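ugh ok so i messed up the first submission bc i forgot one of the chains. this is the corrected input, ALL of the components this time, i swear. 577 residues overall. if the numbers dont match what u have on ur side tell me asap before i send this to the collaborators (the ones from the other lab, u know who)
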Amino acid sequence: MLRMSTLFLRTLRDDPADAEVPSHRLLVRAGYIRRIAAGIYSWLPLGVITLRNIENIVRQEMDRAGFQEVHFPALLPKDAYEETGRWNDYGPDLFRLQDRKGSDYLLGPTHEEMFTLMVKGEYSSYKDLPLALYQIQTKYRDEARPRSGIIRGREFVMKDSYSFDLTDEGLVESYQRHREAYIKTFDRLRMKYNIVSAMSGAMGGSASEEFLAPCETGEDTYVLCEKCGYAANVEAMTTVVAPADASKVAPLEVFDSPNTPTIDTLVELINAKFGGGYDGSMTLKNVMLMADEKPISVLVPGDREVDLKRLEANLAGVNDIRVFEDADFAKFPGLVKGYIGPQDAKKNGITVYADPRIARGTSWVTGANAKDKHARNVVNGRDFTVDSYVESAQIKKGDACPKCATPVIIDRAIEIGHIFQLGRKYADSLGLTVLDQNGKSQVVTMGSYGIGVSRAVAAIAEQSNDELGLSWPVEVAPAKVHIVATGKEDAVFETAEKLAADLEGAGVSVMLDDRRGTSPGVKFKDAELIGIPVIVVVGKALEQGNVEVRVRRTGEKSEVAVGQALKAVTELLPTLP
RNA sequence: CGGGGCGUAGCGUAGUGGCUAGCGCGCCUGCUUUGGGAGCAGGAGAUCGGGAGUUCGAAUCUCCCCGCCCCGACCA
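and heres the new structure output, hopefully the right one now
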């Protein structure tokens, strides 16, 4: 039982000055967490209990799915990370340190290497597979910009699991098992979420999905089709465009276009010149980029920007992309800034990438590669060629769903889980093999799955709060019932004590506000701020032999006889989220 | 890393060269009060982020450093 009279807790009346997003503001005000440094927080008793509740739900669902818990140190020698190349590839986000002998260590940002080696050390037969292991552990990443309280921290708690299979089909099955376990977990946490297609990114591998909890303060953007349910991270959103028939398009025509350095000025000019009917989407923008210091041109419709994130995610084998600078233009005199068209790309030795919207046979208005000159009726396949198609244009609200063509909506969310099929990358570089039925050595294929446990505290807080404070789901809350004793008569406190003891006896965790001499207003405000789902007030109504039962989330109140309170509360709890 | 903002008591803040750094919350003591962050009286609590400088005099001006927040870049 938690007692307000002794609980290590001080709630704050004012919002902390350094907190903006609701979860951060309220978790600090209600005394769950305190900031230690940027992206590094300590947990006070209420926070620890809440975090543990979430951890335990995650643990139970992992165990139920047949995954086995292990535990690694956070402090790791660099060896394994050297072997996979991540000691360097991970870059400045890796916390590195040395021991007294000068040996290199790191604080684990994720544990693929360690799990792979652990399995390698124990297992060597196909008969041992499939296998899935997990841990709940503190991770360290020296984020360039930690933000939003515990939504993106530099130290955070994560559940990470890894599956090990002999075959690709086995991996797909393991992936599905994890997917289902995640659905059960997040449902139990009472979170609103969408499962969206994602890019596997730097981790390599094929299929990947993210569990995104929609909320305004989220830092991920994703598209959602309300009709067919298609959901994808913007990076993974695909564009379906049918090739056009260009046989009737008039020949390419170069025209004078002075003072049209931007798409807007160009559209204005061509509408005046050719009798209207043009808009930005009919022009072709040539964005010059350096991909690993090789010049590339990316073609997108004039009314859209190049989305560098999407481009980078979809452009295989390129590490670094940057926009052209003046020095780069100087090296390519054939490129006339503001008047570039893809017609001469070959001649200039530039690789041309195009967004799928620039389909074969489509006709465009674009630069004519000469100062103050543009061209119209420039047809893909006739007047220029595209080396490769790559999703690169910015996604807009209302773009067509790739599955059913319905206009999609765009929403923001917090990433709370990520599952993906890793493949053999780590098993290969660390030599994790098993003998198959024929006694032949086979490289194991892996899946990797993560849940941001401490981030889930923030995500749930983001999704369940109001102007009064937090409002936790029953299974997550630091206690299920918050009993407020108001008044100065001993009878009130005695009744409250007894009810608290009875509830605890029935397996219902209780927070009891047993502070004497604290005014009722303070107790109510604190209870609402802390966000325990059921508030029982033992006070004025006691004269009639009643207590008041309130539902935090809805504000519903009802009076029940003291003798009925235990029953009323235990019956109420299962009906709440 | 680029842009913007900020750093004064546990929290929120006032104070643009001049007296002992002010106020609210919280905290302590006493009295009163007890259904919506009570009242009165008294009290404790601050090297004004750090260092150097300018000045008769610096929270206030200058320089350097540190830290925090927001936007962007980045982010398995």
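quick check: The mean pLDDT of chain A is 92. that seems consistent at least. The radius of gyration of chain A is 30 Å.
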